[in-house]
Write a structure and sequence with these properties.
By secondary structure, this protein is of the alpha/beta class. It is built from 24 helices and 16 strands. It has three domains: 92 residues, Phosphohistidine domain (Glucose Oxidase, domain 1, 3-Layer(bba) Sandwich); 103 residues, PtsI, HPr-binding domain (Enzyme I, Chain A, domain 2), CATH 1.10.274; 300 residues, TIM Barrel, CATH 3.20.20. Helices cover 46% and strands 14% of the residues.
Length: 568
């Protein structure tokens, strides 16, 4: 019987190969008393310069790819005056060694991100850990592994993979990877999906169990690793792998195809992005537009609020790249689990029910106006749609829209061109908007349903709280009924509805949503082709029957059980 290791299914697919055990050097250091601060400052400066040289070298190896662009942000961090100043002050005034100063300052940044409940934001700490590890390696004179030198088929096994390590992976040889830590939103997991290789993360102990001479089967769909399988099991998986590779080739035909059911009902298939760095995968996978541009990452990646010009350049890049295809930009969605050190957010008993998203930007109108101006200036470069997050009342929508119209007038008075074709919509995340959807549909140009928060607010449960996690039921019939109510209200007014939460990329949910008449689904770029094939291989008439069946259910488990019967 083969031995099994279980983890989180981070990227679908099967890989069969020997392991490459990634061993990162021990970067611990001894505390020491410093007398010559000039020496420590010089050591720190040299470590920074060597780290820059490393990153520039890696960037050249992976040029013209999304991975190469990751290091622009890393290099900017190494040149950040606030960060450099904080470390040099630790050395010169507190008499810390270069190692201790780097460790202390960088850990404060890492802790800030790791304390966030939002899994995507929490995992951005990996970028800072990566840079910290590189600086420390030079201070301690210990070489980091170079994964670009791998020239045989392997499966990487590691405690974790940093962004720079992941970027060096050559998919001709690296068939997948397994890590002890991480989640589905960790950088390594996202990169695996982007590169199209299977991955399992969060195994806790794979790097301790797997040996160099083991034969590994990595099942990224099931989150399972089989070690030294019996011949019959190996043959079975080899057949599955051949079928999978054939499937991947088949999916390529959908890159430039339209998304429509077998009975010719069109569904727009859009992509979610967090920055312009995501665009290459969006274009390569044939997305029909951007359904959700999370602008908060512009703010998260900066030590201070991004300027109007900085935001303008980012929005312009996305709009120009997408051409005539629609780009839906969500205005700043901060608060709740997303905090920024340079913004003043109050301490609240329950921040998810507090000053967040549009509630915050309507209070901090100067900050909001800067973003709105940047968006309006960029609007002439593409098909821009702007939506406001966390709307609960008409007053909020009217107030946000008024600020937008005021800045539009201001820009034109300044002689700056602004598009006349900008649609203005809202995120549907609160039950109050669901109940008033018929009236909101008369005022907005479109709806975008954020199912992650909608589920949370419908069941009155913090989606990050393990004690009530059983209540976070995205497939509950109540959620589908609410979505249908919005679709029907919008269609009566000739408006369109999109779903951009996690539910949009779930195959079982897609059947229900398309059956209910959803206009658009917005998913990760890596999910575009699978989703398109899935929808194109089914008829709207059949999916309508499935949607009716779901609405007759009483519990989520009943819905899931029924829907799974229709998945091949």
């Amino acid at each position: 019987m083969s031995k099994q290791v279980a983890g989180i299914a981070a990227s679908k697919g099967i890989a069969i190969a020997r392991p490459y055990l990634l061993n990162t050097p021990d970067l611990s250091y001894e505390e020491k008393e410093i007398t010559e601060t000039d020496v420590e400052l010089e050591r720190f400066d040299q470590a920074i310069e060597k780290s820059k040289t490393d990153l520039e070298s890696i960037q050249k190896k992976v040029k013209n790819t999304d991975e190469a662009k990751i290091f622009d942000a890393h290099l900017l961090l190494l040149e950040d005056p606030e960060l450099i100043s904080a470390i040099t002050l630790k050395i010169s005034e507190e008499k810390l060694s270069a190692e201790a100063a780097v460790d202390e300052v960088m850990q404060s940044y890492i802790s800030m991100f790791e304390s966030m409940d939002d899994e995507y934001l929490k995992e951005r700490a990996a970028d800072i850990k990566d840079i910290t590890q590189r600086i420390m390696s030079h201070l301690l004179n210990k070489l980091l592994p170079d994964l670009s030198l791998i020239k045989e088929e392997v499966i990487i096994v590691a405690k974790d993979l940093t962004p720079s390590e992941t970027a060096q992976l050559d998919v001709r040889y690296v068939k997948g990877f397994i890590t002890d830590i991480g989640g589905r939103t960790s950088h390594s997991a996202i990169m695996a999906r982007t590169m199209g290789i299977p991955a399992i993360v969060g195994t806790s102990n794979a790097s301790e169990i797997i040996r160099q001479d083991d034969m590994i089967i990595l099942d990224g769909s099931r989150g399972e690793v089989l070690l030294n399988p019996e011949s019959s099991v190996l043959e079975d998986y080899q057949t599955k792998l051949r079928n999978e590779l054939s499937r991947k080739e088949l999916l390529k035909q959908y890159v430039n195809a339209s998304t429509q059911t077998k009975d010719n009902v069109k569904v727009n298939l859009f992509a979610n992005i967090g920055s312009p760095l995501d665009l290459e995968a969006v274009v390569n996978n044939g997305a029909e537009g951007i359904g959700l541009y999370r602008t908060e990452f512009l703010y998260m990646e900066s030590k201070q609020a991004p300027t109007e010009d900085e935001q303008y350049e980012a929005y312009k890049k996305v709009l120009e790249t997408m051409g005539d295809r629609p780009v839906t930009v969500r205005t700043l969605d901060i608060g709740g689990d997303k905090e920024l050190p340079y913004l003043t957010l109050p301490d609240e008993m329950n921040p998810f029910l507090g000053l967040r998203a549009v509630r915050y930007t309507l209070k901090e109108t100067a900050l909001f106006r800067i973003q709105l101006r940047a968006l309006l200036r960029a609007s002439i470069y593409g098909n821009l749609k702007i939506m406001f997050p966390m709307i609960s009342t008409f007053e909020e929508f009217y107030a946000a829209k008024q600020l937008l119209l005021e800045e539009k007038t201001n820009l034109r008075n300044e002689g700056i061109q602004v598009s006349d074709a900008i649609e203005i919509g809202i995120m549907v995340e609160t039950p109050s908007v669901i109940m008033m959807a018929d009236q909101f549909a008369k005022e907005v140009d479109f709806f975008s349903i954020g199912t992650n928060d909608l589920v949370q607010y419908t069941f009155a449960c913090d989606r990050m709280n393990e004690n009530v996690s059983y209540l976070y039921q995205a497939h509950h019939p109540a959620i589908f009924k609410m979505i249908e109510q919005v679709i029907e209200a919008a269609h009566r007014e000739g408006k369109q509805v999109s779903v951009c939460g996690e539910l949009a990329s779930d195959a079982t949910a897609q059947m229900v949503l398309v059956g209910m008449g959803i206009d658009s689904l917005s998913v990760s770029a890596s999910s575009i082709l699978e989703s398109r094939a899935f929808i194109n291989e089914r008829s709207k008439a059949d999916l309508e029957k499935i949607a009716v069946m779901v609405k007759a259910c009483r519990e989520e488990k009943e819905v899931v059980e029924q829907l799974n019967k229709y998945i091949d």
